[in-house]
UniProtKB/TrEMBL annotation:
The keyword Oxidoreductase applies. This is Quinol monooxygenase. Keywords: Monooxygenase, Oxidoreductase. Its EC number is 1.-.-.-. It comes from Nocardiopsis codii.
Length: 107
């Protein structure tokens, strides 16, 4: 990240629905978008469905700072939604979190 002027935090979240819960997980994720985009420090929050992999979803997030991302995770509404998310996921959401580091070619 040293060779880029951008200091934002990019997070990629990949999750998979339990069998039979694909539509419910998609609706759940869609329901989080507006509130997440309005969280302090959010730059971008875009959910995607993976083509050819039914029930697999990716959310690409960008935040001003790591603290803004952490604040998003600690938001009371997220804490309230966590039990429902766990009912829908095949595996752990934590296993699907990846922090991305931007880089640019040298001049």
């Amino acid at each position: 990240m040293d060779n880029t002027p951008d200091r934002y935090v990019t997070v990629l979240l990949e999750v998979r629905a339990k069998p039979g819960k694909e539509a419910e997980l998609k609706a759940f994720i869609a329901g989080t978008v507006t509130a997440s985009r309005n969280d302090p420090g959010n730059i971008d929050y875009e959910p995607h469905e993976v083509e050819g992999r039914p029930g697999t979803f990716i959310v690409l997030e960008r935040w001003d700072t790591h603290e803004a991302f952490e604040g998003h995770l600690r938001a009371p509404r997220r804490q309230a939604l966590a039990p429902r998310l766990l009912e829908l996921l095949d595996g752990s959401a934590d296993d699907g979190v990846r922090f991305l580091r931007p880089f640019r070619p040298a001049d």
